[in-house]
UniProtKB/TrEMBL annotation:
<dbReference type="InterPro" id="IPR006059">
    <property type="entry name" value="SBP"/>
</dbReference>
<dbReference type="GO" id="GO:0042597">
    <property type="term" value="C:periplasmic space"/>
</dbReference>
<feature type="signal peptide">
    <location>
        <begin position="1"/>
        <end position="23"/>
    </location>
</feature>
<dbReference type="Pfam" id="PF13416">
    <property type="entry name" value="SBP_bac_8"/>
</dbReference>
<protein>
    <submittedName>
        <fullName>Putative ABC transporter-binding protein</fullName>
    </submittedName>
</protein>
<keyword id="KW-0732">Signal</keyword>
<dbReference type="InterPro" id="IPR050490">
    <property type="entry name" value="Bact_solute-bd_prot1"/>
</dbReference>
<comment type="similarity">
    <text>Belongs to the bacterial solute-binding protein 1 family.</text>
</comment>
<keyword id="KW-0813">Transport</keyword>
Amino acid sequence: MTLIRHLMTGLAGAALLATGAIAEDLTIVHGSVGRDQEVLRSQLDKFEAQTGHTVTIVSMPESTTDQFGQYRLWLSAQSTDIDVYRLDVIWAPQLAEHFVDLTEATADIRDQFIPSTLEGQTVDGKLVALPMFIGAPALYYRQDLLEKYGQEVPATWAELTETAALILEGERAEGNSDLQGFVFQGAAYEGLTCNAMEWVASYGGGNFVEPDGSIGINNPQAAEALTLAASWIGTIAPEGVLNYKEEDARGVFQSGNAIFMRNWNYAYALVQGDDSPVKGMVGVTQLPSGGEGMSSAATLGGWELGVSKYSEHQEASIELIKFLTNYENQKERAIVTSRPPTLTAVYNDADVAAEQPFIPLWKPVLDGTLARPSAAAKRKYNEASSLFWTAVHNTLSGNGAAEENLSRLEAELTRLRGPRW
């Protein structure tokens, strides 16, 4: 802690003591990519200066699967060590019992949020968490390379495959041996579930668990989508993509070594940053569809802030999450990290539009995102998702054809579901 921060916190603490309030020491657990943690720490410093409370960040690994596993350990043990958790958008149905109901405490601000962001965090009438930012993936592409080879932005996955192969052939003939055609999140974790849901849905293959809890993933459309994706490995995508998470893909693309990338909104601020080798060369559009008459699909992402039921500082923690989701902080997060806000008004902010034109233009995509089936699968969602990403990863790795792996997946999901989810 810097001397200035000590002084500011001390002054705020003195003011609190003068009014009879008590300064508290809070802990927030937070996984991040890009500049998330940097912006969070800056905003926490402001919170500390205003309130006299102190807030410590407990950092988590990039993988959301690893984060969830650790969270369950803390919560099952009813640990008082963590006051505020940053939660993935899909976790509310699985973890609701461990978090404070925020309904009454947020009555004065709930109408400011995009309604769907609150609906996704409401379980049996209980508001489990406040939405921090929304996530929706995009197709990032090298506009300069498309123009060089006279190619249009691909509207279908087949067009992306063909365009990437054409440009790769030309560039490698000129000695650009490091260039890849397409990078995405291909490791065996929740990120692959998100990618594969988009491929399958864009071909009309449905979801691995339907909204009514039924299982119909073993179908020709899903098999066609996964068969095409498997054809990318070792051709337009490096074999190493089978181990890529978000930052791995971004690192390759931002270094100038990929034509196309599937990634979340946060990557936009970084690939267009002043220190980016590809600044000014990148375009962004919606993900491709499976073909004529089919629609693009983008998995809903985003992160929320919940207060642990086992926290000994619940009032101060609620104060903190309301602070981190207020207009000023959502605006700053949008500008600095290109994270789409959950407050409706921020989309109309002129500064946000000027600094990150990507955000207001992306709101129609956010409104039509594809939800992961956490509400349908309930407490068994993570097991169901693991079965899905394993089947997909096997297909991408050449361990069985798509049809074979989907047939096995259907049987495994049926056993997992039992009489009901």
